[in-house]
From TrEMBL:
L-glutamate binds at residues 111, 454, 478-479, 500. The active site is at 412 (nucleophile). Gene3D superfamilies: 1.10.246.130, 3.60.20.40. InterPro entries: GGT_bact, GGT_lsub, GGT_peptidase, GGT_ssub_C, Ntn_hydrolases_N, TAT_signal. This is Glutathione hydrolase proenzyme. The keyword Transferase applies. This enzyme consists of two polypeptide chains, which are synthesized in precursor form from a single polypeptide. The lineage of its organism: Bacteria, Bacillati, Actinomycetota, Actinomycetes, Kitasatosporales. Cleaved by autocatalysis into a large and a small subunit. Its EC number is 2.3.2.2, 3.4.19.13.
Length: 597
């Protein structure tokens, strides 16, 4: 199918047309203004995403009587249009669902999967025997895993939804057709990817209209994506896993549409139609820990989100953070995170391929053994060695030296939805890096993921088994941490974030800030962040106060922004507060169905 060009129209032009026509109503086909607010409190349902169009689509589904699952899929499909560099049918994710009727938490593992032809050394350059350059691996066919997002939507709706996928895709189709207003974040993300987008003809045509990143205030349309969504609506997700759309994906991965004049060698991928046909999005038991009397549910492997947040909480529960000074509480937060990351890197991978000692990682005995390494007066020096989650916990083994930190991208999106019946969804979806592999499937309007670069190309530490090496049909380890917290069996809050490995620390810091440090959820989401992942230094946002912590031996490295969370808190009397970022990534959007009772 030939790629079609989206049309650009300036918003100013549209407004002018409306004014000349003597009407203050918006022009019929004009994109709506995209004002947004980061916090909303009310009744009958709530949605928080990074994008006002997606949030609005979700709230409209709820208003019309849809449930949280219907709204989450509708909002996610819109994010595929308005946040195409972070989300979409070319990627994967993890869907966590609290079912109010049964009081149980379920999860869907929609992680991208390596093709059968992938081998442990697939990212090693045979010419040199060395790992490929990371950037080359990212923007290549080789990094593309089987997309899991379409099947996730389909499974979620069939199991727990009340609408069809066709209905859930409707708002997204409309927005892809009428277009959305380009904001500073979209322009900036395009500009940051400009060089590699230029390397692929299909990507250049779609995302660099007229050869440039779209202007702020212009309207971005994606009729190809509208047509693709329509095809899925009409014929089901089989068009991707067993049909023409799938064949287009495989062709693109095997023969990336490299633009003339590109001199770097773009590695073709190993994906075949049989890989798409065998893809599954399994239901997995969530991880579960208790924290100060609350039940915390998260995503199990192949995500390391639930196990790492859970282990860190188990460690922290041994201390009364609320009685500590700010410095001591944050010191313990950083140390717990450091220890949990050492263990995550050593023990967590795809459970269908490696034995993940999940129960032990989340046990109180293991937490006690790890906690005993924390000193109130001195920060541990990373990288520290992983612990042995072997069920034999006595004494206090020395910290030892561990592995370097693996590299991970930073571009998921997370959405949180609740409905009037008390169902809750925390859903993280991604195409890995901002812009994924950089390869648009020609004529289809969406980017393919580069999720397979979440594998470690070589073992992190020589002589130590690495659970996250590539393999045929294997899922790369993720950090996505959609989390639902219950109190007495009822939802208290749900939260999640993008940000690669910083997702884990972002979610952990928000939980600690909300549950221990006396902040409200909006305050916890807004608070300056720091992320310690068993690295020699801790990444910290500029506003994060490092003073007292530096005196304890913590070293910091500044990072402009960490994460872009969304969440919902459930208040008394059926009220709920939806929370998005006030400023990070240009701010997110929170809405409720009914502000008043
Ligand atoms: N690939 C990352 C993961 O699964 C998510 C992408 C991101 O947020 O950077 O953990």
């Amino acid at each position: 199918m030939a790629a079609r060009r989206e049309t650009l129209v300036t918003l100013a032009g549209l407004v002018l047309v409306g004014t000349l026509a003597g009407s203050t109503a918006p022009v019929a086909a004009a994109p709506r203004q995209t004002s947004k607010q980061p916090v909303a409190t009310g009744y009958l349902g709530a949605v928080a995403t990074v994008d006002p169009e997606a949030t609005r689509a979700g709230v409209e589904v709820l208003r019309r009587g849809g449930n949280a699952v219907d709204a989450a899929v509708a909002a996610a499909a819109v994010l595929g249009v308005t946040e195409p560099y972070s989300a979409g049918i070319g990627g994967g994710g993890f869907f966590v669902y609290y079912d109010a009727r049964t009081g149980r938490v379920h999860t869907i593992d929609g992680r991208e999967t390596a093709p059968q032809r992938m081998r442990e050394d697939s990212f090693i350059d045979p010419a040199t025997g060395q790992p490929m350059k990371f950037e080359d691996a990212v923007s290549s066919g080789l990094s593309v895993g089987v997309p899991g997002t379409p099947l996730t939507w389909d499974r979620a709706l069939r199991r727990w939804g009340t609408t069809s996928l066709a209905q859930a895709l409707r708002p997204a189709i409309r927005i892809a057709e009428r277009g959305f207003v380009v904001d500073e974040t979209f322009r900036q993300q395009t500009a940051e990817n400009e060089k590699r987008f230029r390397e692929f003809t299909s990507t250049r045509e779609l995302f660099l209209p007229g050869g440039e990143p779209p202007r702020v205030g212009s309207v971005f349309r994606n009729p190809d994506l509208a047509a693709t969504y329509r095809e899925i609506a009409r014929h089901g997700v089989g068009v991707l896993y067993r049909g023409e759309l799938g064949r287009d994906i495989v062709r693109t991965v095997q023969h990336p549409p490299v633009a003339p004049g590109v001199t770097r060698k773009v590695a073709p991928g190993l994906l075949e139609t049989s890989d798409l046909a065998r893809y599954t999005a399994p239901l997995r038991e969530p991880t579960h820990v208790t924290y100060r009397g609350l039940d915390v549910y998260g995503m199990a492997p192949p995500s390391s989100g639930g196990s790492t947040v859970g282990e860190a909480l188990n460690i922290l529960e041994r201390y009364d953070l609320s009685a500590m000074s700010r410095t001591q509480a944050l010191h313990h937060y950083l140390e717990a995170s450091r220890l949990a990351f050492a263990d995550r890197n050593r023990w967590v991978g795809d459970p269908d391929f490696v034995k993940v000692p999940l129960q032990e990682l989340l046990s109180q005995g293991f937490a006690a053994e790890r906690a005993c390494l924390i000193r109130p007066d001195r920060a541990l020096q990373s990288p520290i060695a992983p612990g042995e989650p072997d069920g034999r916990y006595a004494g206090c083994p020395a910290a030892g030296t561990g592995a370097r930190e693996p590299y991970e991208g930073r571009s998921t999106t997370h959405l949180t939805v609740a409905d009037r019946w008390g169902n809750v969804v925390a859903y993280a979806l991604t195409i890995e890096q901002t812009g994924g592999s950089g390869i648009v499937v020609p004529g289809r309007g969406f980017l393919l993921n580069n999720e397979l670069t979440d594998f470690n190309f070589v073992p992190l530490q020589a002589g130590v088994p690495d659970p996250n090496l590539p393999g045929p049909g294997k899922r790369p380890r993720s950090s996505m941490s959609p989390t639902i917290v219950l109190r007495d069996g009822r939802p208290l809050l749900a939260v999640g974030s993008p940000g690669g490995a910083t997702i884990i620390t972002t979610v952990l810091q928000i939980l600690v800030s909300r549950l221990d440090l006396g902040m409200s959820l909006p305050e916890a989401v807004a608070a300056p962040r720091a992320s310690q992942r068993n690295g020699a230094s801790t990444e910290a946002e500029p506003a994060f106060e490092t003073g007292g912590l530096t005196a304890l031996g913590h070293r910091f490295q500044q990072r402009e922004e960490i994460g872009a969370a969304t969440g919902i808190e459930f208040l008394t009397g059926h009220r709920m507060t939806a929370v998005a970022e006030p400023t990070r990534r240009g701010g997110g959007s929170a809405m409720v169905v009914a502000p008043k009772r």
